[in-house]
């Protein structure tokens, strides 16, 4: 039993060294703004999936807390039964003491009669019956004492197990809170990325407008030059004007210099602005990928600790059942369901299934939900009650990101089917410059897609999904805190149990 308690203390401490999960998130190593948008959409969907897994882990922790509360109630009932049996033992001892006093009184009276009558002592039948009854009572007393000691040892073991379970639940709760905070930070980083992308698009629009104005000014200057040359050609046969011949070089010099400067500024803006925007977005996406990998490792650790807690709960439930059968008490009300097919439809006292089955089920549900939401968002207009961001993410990019997401099945334990994460040097490498001639302003305008309504609907759908995920996570956290508050009162009530169980609880709490 001591070895078993040592193993449970190792499980309850929650100190695991899981292997570092392989990441399946790989950012764009090169490409255009379309690849960047597809990567952002994939990151958002993975954040939603991690949020669902976090809510599932919170629900499992709440179920473990409920089972622990049931253990506490059963332990209190056992302590009450032990107290009742202790009272019966005291009553038996008082009865034995009374019978011994009666026996001594009878023996003294018989001795006095024998001395007075000088007759040989004869055994009295009452004394023999009393001695037989005393022997039986002593035997029952010894048996009851052994049983009480055995039950007290079981109660001490259950108290230690309860302390280990409580420490494990607290550890899991802190891990889930930390994972929720990281998910919120990642969502905020995605929102910041969207805002910076919108700022870059507005800057690009302003630059294009400036280029159009510059081109119109250039066309006007060229038209004036052509007109001035044609005027000089018309006035050529009549003789050149000395004043105009002196003024033309003076006018042509500043005009040509300003024109060259405008062309150089336009070329530098065309080269620098897209490169800076692309480098900034790649750096932000790399940071988000690192955060998602860290969150995946934390989530796999939470799943492993949940499995250890489930094994500890199973062992404690079996010991509690054996103790109840030994003392003749009614069995506990918790029904263990270890079938691997019941995950969401099982009762609150059941044990969840393996994490691999949960991962596949959650991925199928996410795929069905995303398809149904996409068809609904394209058929109806977005809700006007919630503010929406205008993002220019094309529908083709979203479909391609969904295909990429289906090809790389996301594993909660950190595993991946192929492909590693890019190094920071590869992620921050800007795309190669185009060696061909630069595009004109009309060609830049033609690059922008005309399907703005579908893009806005797709972005509104993603924003609604993020809002729903945050709302559900906040509700789950509030319910978990309320249940933990209810769990404090039975824990304090069990500290005053007879037989020294409160001392074992205090030692366990200080050690945990």
UniProtKB/TrEMBL annotation:
Superkingdom of source: Eukaryota
Ranges of compositional bias, category Acidic residues: 396-410, 452-467
Comp. bias intervals (Basic and acidic residues): 1-10, 209-235, 480-489
Bias type Gly residues, positions: 412-421
Keywords: Coiled coil
Disordered: annotated segments: 1-32, 192-284, 324-512
Coiled-coil regions listed: 89-147
Stated name of the protein: Uncharacterized protein
Natural source organism: Phytophthora palmivora
